[in-house]
Amino acid sequence: MQEPADRQGLTSWIELDGQAFFNNLKFFRQRIGEKTRLCAVVKANAYGHGIAQMAGLALDSGVDCFAVHSVDEALLLRSLSPTADVLILGPVPIPRLEEAVKGKFKICMYDKPVLKALSDVCRRLGVPAAVHLKMETGTNRQGIPLAELPQFLELLHRCPELSLEGIYTHFANIEDTTDHDYARFQMENFRKCAEAVEGAGFSPPIRHTACSAASLLFPETLADMVRIGISLYGLWPSRETYICYVLRSGNFKEERLEPVLSWKARVCQAKDVPEGACISYGCTYKTTHPSRIAVMPVGYFDGYDRHLSNNGHVLIHGKRAPVRGRVCMNFFMADVTHISGVHSGDEVVLIGRQGEEQITAGDIAERIGTIHYEVVTRLHPSIPRLVV
Ligand SMILES: *Cc1c(COP(=O)(O)O)cnc(C)c1O
After folding, report:
1. CB 217 within 8 A of CB 176
2. The predicted structure's pLDDT at residue 179
3. Is the CB of 138 within 6 Å of ligand 1?
4. What average pLDDT does the chain have?
5. Could you say which of 26, 43, 110, 245 is catalytic?
6. Using a 6 Å cutoff on CB, does residue 372 contact ligand 1?
7. What's the rounded Cα separation, in Å, for the pair 50 and 230?
């Protein structure tokens, strides 16, 4: 089979299915309607998918806004689009506020000294800035408690160079459970915060609360904008979210989210080993019969978790091959005794489909005791990302 030119010379790479991404966007656009803005959350290197690649696709398809964690991520987006709306969710260190103002980024605020410093920077530069106030409603991560909100609003009144563009909050317990009482409690708290903001004479045009799971399960959380991360990449936030969604929508046929990412590699050696041979560090695996072992040029450095030692599977020639021995820093081995004709250079799927078989980020997460969010975000940024 002829390799596409962009894959020649690569030992491991990530393929991004642009069509799947567009379909996921369309799916959310249909759910949220035309009036609600869609903010694509591209923090953490676009959940490991590659921020430049995913932002490129999103810009092509008319996403209204991007959310990132850091100033550096925001600057990267700015280099791709001089006009895109970029919201920085994470902390902006005071010495970097000037870059954020010059970049015309929307900055999330929850800390008074930072708000004062931002106002000073704007006055010095003679330019305005838009802020979003993060409300504490029960997650107890960053956020302004209701009791401190009046002081913030008073400060904002004294800073005409700052415009209150948005208020928002984030749910603590919406994807991990089928019991959504806590989410309702947070919605109620957010309503009180919004009332206080209005009572102080502000009317921020963009109120936002919903992440992927909230957007999928609670139309009442959509408000003026939704912040969609994991599900834009085609992954359900959790099994609980999927079950609730299917039960509520009565849609048992179609999943309607398509995973965007596949991770592939090429076998770098295939060898026959005798019965009783040790595989990899620590000799944790010993062959019980003459075996054929394929060596993969991928290891925990790349984001192939060491807990997949003697635990994971890969796909070769459309069949599952179990990981044998410990995952090394840059290599691991798989047993291909039952798969005929495996040779050096053959394509291996670590995450994704091959033939009838599929390995999802969720399958890997379950094996190593974490969530698929962590599996994809830890894919090393140095792995080439190719849009297909
Ligand atoms: C990461 C994040 C999101 C996106 O959450 P998903 O579950 O990936 O959709 C939304 N809002 C905030 C504040 C976040 O930090």
Report:
1. no
2. 83
3. no
4. 95
5. 43
6. no
7. 13
Cα(142)–Cα(111) distance, rounded to whole angstroms? 9
Whether 3 has a pLDDT exceeding 80, the answer reads: no
For CATH 2.40.37.10, the residue range(s) in the chain are 261-359
pLDDT of 44-69, one tens digit each? Answer: 999 999 999 999 999 999 898 999 99
pLDDT score of 254 more than 90: no
Does residue 212 have its Cβ closer than 6 Å to ligand 1? yes
Known catalytic residue: 116? no
- For residue 337, pLDDT over 70 is answered with yes
**Res. 4: pLDDT tops 80:** no
Q: Please indicate, yes or no, whether the overall pTM of this predicted structure exceeds 0.90.
A: yes
227 Cα–ligand 1 center, Å: 6
- Residue 211 CA: which ligand 1 atom is closest? 9
DSSP string across 119-135: HHHHHHHT--EEEEEEB
Residue with CA closest to ligand 1 atom 3: 211
Distance 228 CA to ligand 1 centre (A): 6
Give me ligand 1 centre to Cα 211, in Å: 5
Is residue 328 in contact with ligand 1, taking CB distance under 6 Å? no
- Decide: 41 in ligand 1 pocket, CB within 6 A: yes
CB of 227 sitting under 6 A from ligand 1: yes
pLDDT of residue 255: 63
Which CATH fold would you assign to the domain 261-359?
Answer: Lyase, Ornithine Decarboxylase; Chain A, domain 1 (2.40.37)
User: What are 257-273's pLDDT values in tens digits?
Assistant: 999 999 999 999 999 99
* 256 dihedral zone (left: phi>0; alpha: psi -120 to 50; beta): left
CATH 3.20.20.10 intervals, the chain = 18-249
Closest by CA to 302, choosing from 386, 384, 388, is: 384
Is a pLDDT exceeding 80 seen at residue 172?
Answer: yes
Question: Which candidate in 112, 281, 286, 304 is catalytic?
Answer: 281
- Residue 281 annotated in active site: yes
pLDDT digits 0-9 by tens, 128-141: 999 999 999 999 99
Report the chain's C-alpha Rg in angstroms: 24
Classify domain 18-249 by CATH number: 3.20.20.10
Length of the chain: 388
* Torsional class of 85: left (φ above 0), alpha (ψ -120 to 50), beta (otherwise): beta
